[in-house]
Amino acid sequence: MLNKRTEQVLFAIVQSYIASHEPVGSRFVTKKYSFNLSPATIRNIMADLEELGFLIQPHTSAGRVPTDRGYRFYVDYLPEHMAAVEEKNFLTAYMTRLESLKEDLNGVIEGAAKTLSENSSYIGVSAPLKPEKTTLNRVELFSYKGRHIAVMLLTNEGIIKHKLIRMEQEVSPRTLRRISDYLNQEFAGYGIDDIRLRLVREMSKEKAFCDILITKAMEICREALTFPAGDIYMYGLPEFIGLPDFSDRIKEIARAIEDKHLMVRLLEKVCQEPGGASVLIGSENPVKEMRGLSMVLAPYGQGGRPAGTVGIIGPTRMDYNRAITMVEATARFITDFLSDGA
Amino acid sequence: MLNKRTEQVLFAIVQSYIASHEPVGSRFVTKKYSFNLSPATIRNIMADLEELGFLIQPHTSAGRVPTDRGYRFYVDYLPEHMAAVEEKNFLTAYMTRLESLKEDLNGVIEGAAKTLSENSSYIGVSAPLKPEKTTLNRVELFSYKGRHIAVMLLTNEGIIKHKLIRMEQEVSPRTLRRISDYLNQEFAGYGIDDIRLRLVREMSKEKAFCDILITKAMEICREALTFPAGDIYMYGLPEFIGLPDFSDRIKEIARAIEDKHLMVRLLEKVCQEPGGASVLIGSENPVKEMRGLSMVLAPYGQGGRPAGTVGIIGPTRMDYNRAITMVEATARFITDFLSDGA
DNA sequence: CTTTAGCACTCTAATACCGAGAGTGCTAAA
DNA sequence: TTTAGCACTCTCGGTATTAGAGTGCTAAAG
After folding, report:
1. DSSP B341
2. Is 1.10.760.10 the CATH classification of the domain at B4-79?
């Protein structure tokens, strides 16, 4: 579709714009990148690229700026053209920073979001491993002040969850003991999701026999294994709004980003998709408040299956190369950690 | 120091500025508030007030704007001059909104920050009840994958905490059982802080006898009862940066606010102070990045002693009256909840 | 046919200038 | 002590001007 030379010019323009945030003119391209072409030729090429929708000029006498489509080209073109050496150096430095997260078993995933933001000056996000996707190590139920039950759930992935359930009637510690023993003996090692399903099935069976006590117990079990829709971790908003990009739309954008619901859905969607980092550029974003932003997301896995997502949110003119490097490294890191770290 | 009339004028000016965010001129004061004085007289008074440091004019031909000192006067003057009726209505409406927090035992304090922000368009903060300040209901230790210990701590205030401790050597489930039984029998009902202290004392005693096993156990106990410095809850940043006030200093301010360390210290300080809401206005703020912001904070109590803080962060020209009403109501609400809710 | 030099053209950003409006401070009278 | 009157100051919005950057087009060169 584009000939080689045109591609190179487009690539150079996007790269240069990402670095400088200033519309890039024909003269600049000839100077900085040595195509051995005159500005006039470059201008012709740029005019073509504009016609094809890869570039626009903010106004007649400015240079050109990439469109979302331009960025898309850049990102797809990227893998073949990474400046490998420098990037490798950065990567190893970044990896050592990740290593320090291993200290805190519970904090790896939250820490990943933090690290991403700190190293990019964009926003780092991570969706924690959903308890439903994990396997039961043990669950404990305690009676608390008569009418409450304290639940502690421990998974084989090193996640601890707790909750307090308010009951209608008091349940004796002995009964609780028996319920949790039952759960642990029957279900240790199984996926939380599966257990919940089986419990529901059992429940409906028991109901047929009208055994209220057992039904109650089942209900407690089910409750004990249900947790509120996972939050996501997000760091770097203050840095981000300090970026010169959005001085106007700040409010709108800040709100979109803080809307965790949207975010959660987005991250979950990406979580399904296999492979490396996905890049969503500006208008490609399904959430319309986030046009003008780009996201680089990658799933991390647990036992071979994708289990959560980490990523970066930044302006469309973010440093994709760097971002992709970081996000992929982070996802790999968490995957490794989950499989052998704990 | 100021005569009655001067005070009234100052009060009127501050109030009016808070409402409109525009420098207020002499003519406006005579119109809006019926002092039966001519603009010229008001001008004289205003000139005096400026000399005394309560007002400044942004430039020669603008109206006056309160200084921090002006706000301080206003806040101190406020209690005697609340427009009681309207405020009462607001208060009852607000209280019902708070009521809905009772649903979720764990979320009251977090919810308080949310509610504060939602009802003020400023930033709501709350510092959770520190586990150290609570009393032990029970603690449980579980062996996890050999070299780890999972701890669950349940306090009489309804707080559950958990953590995972990495050990050098494996500790048998039986030993853990004995340790937790010991803790529960010996210390149930005691303050976590006290327990920690006593454990340290015991430890040094034991050390003298070189009993490694017991020392180890003590150490586990102590670890189990130690938790990372509490986070604080904070909501409303996106709304806040949308306010017209700080279009320039956004970055700086956003960073100051996100710096949880500073915040935690600040909140803890206020937590010590008895009585109703404390108001920190602009330059009164010990944290210099937060000059230009005001905070309204009030401690909530637990068993008679102050246990945490809730509050609002806003621009110096915030609606103090409303803010104080809300913060005090929220603090009272949490205090009540802790004493009888659970 | 492609590339290039030259040049006129367009648009922005910076600067200065002007006039209207707002609000003041001061003076002199009530 | 208060007030009316008035000159003064400063901001804000609009307009004009200019310098500079970068383009598109044309016509010549490779």
Report:
1. I
2. no
